[in-house]
């Protein structure tokens, strides 16, 4: 089956470039385009693509808010969002992840990396390396806690669904460890850790390990200065 992609950018030439690059692949289908954030939300809800390529700075509604409306934690039929922008600022990456994005690329990314990025997000994986996740979320860890101070009870109830071992694995994910590193730290097999990670994501209703990191900081399980 083809991966259905919605392209959202306020520049027609940029949309054309993405469409040309992705359409060259037999497993991609461009199902629509949007020139502003409101169009992006409307088309994402109507078309339910597998991946939305989202610009940040767009008229009428910016890409961060558009992402929140189609991929945020309160959305019933969430769509995976890959944010692609010219702005390589931590604040934008942080806000995009908080809004529900599953990946972040720059517009000068080579075509082959763009293609790989869409495939990664479509497969349900996060497009940020563990070490990048650790540095980024770590710098904003305190703010995450402040932003979600009113949600503590709901988050604690969700955490209660995890076993002690799963909590331990989640803490190591939040510390930026990859699956092989977690396996080594806990003296367990890699496939076992992969199973734990899948269970954690399912129990907490999270789509990928980036959002598991955000959850860990929100609940206070991880802190910016944790090793």
UniProtKB/TrEMBL annotation:
Identify the SUPFAM superfamilies for this entry.
C-terminal effector domain of the bipartite response regulators, CheY-like
Q: Which residues carry this modification: 4-aspartylphosphate?
A: 55
Record keywords, A-Z: DNA-binding, Phosphoprotein, Transcription, Transcription regulation
Task: Give the HTH luxR-type domain ranges.
Answer: 155-220
Give the SMART domains listed for this entry: HTH_LUXR (SM00421), REC (SM00448)
Q: Boundaries of each Response regulatory domain copy?
A: 4-122
Offer one Pfam family short name for this entry. Response_reg
A biological-process GO annotation:
regulation of DNA-templated transcription
Superkingdom assignment:
Bacteria
Could you tell me which CDD domains the record lists for this protein? LuxR_C_like, REC_NarL-like
Q: Name one GO molecular function term.
A: DNA binding
* Annotated PANTHER family: TRANSCRIPTIONAL REGULATORY PROTEIN NARL-RELATED, TWO-COMPONENT RESPONSE REGULATOR
Q: What is this protein called?
A: LuxR family two component transcriptional regulator
């Amino acid at each position: 089956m083809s991966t259905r992609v919605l392209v959202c950018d306020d520049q027609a030439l940029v949309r054309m470039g993405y469409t040309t690059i992705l359409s060259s692949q037999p497993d991609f289908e461009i199902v629509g385009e949007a020139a502003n954030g409101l169009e992006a939300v409307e088309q994402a809800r109507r078309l339910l693509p597998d991946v939305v390529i989202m610009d940040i700075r767009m008229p009428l509604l910016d890409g961060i808010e558009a992402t929140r409306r189609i991929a945020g934690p309160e959305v019933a039929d969430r769509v995976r969002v890959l944010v692609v922008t010219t702005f390589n600022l931590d604040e934008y990456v942080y806000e995009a992840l908080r809004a529900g994005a599953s990946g972040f690329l720059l517009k000068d990314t080579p075509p082959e990396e763009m293609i790989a990025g869409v495939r990664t997000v479509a497969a349900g994986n996060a497009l940020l390396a563990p070490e990048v996740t650790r540095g980024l979320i770590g710098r904003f860890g305190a703010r995450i806690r402040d932003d979600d101070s009113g949600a503590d009870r709901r988050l604690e109830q969700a955490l209660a669904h995890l076993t002690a071992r799963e909590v331990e694995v989640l803490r190591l994910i939040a510390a930026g460890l990859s699956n092989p590193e977690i396996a080594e730290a806990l003296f367990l097999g890699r496939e076992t850790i992969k199973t734990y990670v899948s269970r954690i994501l399912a129990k907490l209703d999270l789509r990928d390990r980036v959002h598991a990191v955000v959850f860990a900081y929100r609940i206070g399980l991880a802190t910016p200065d944790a090793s």
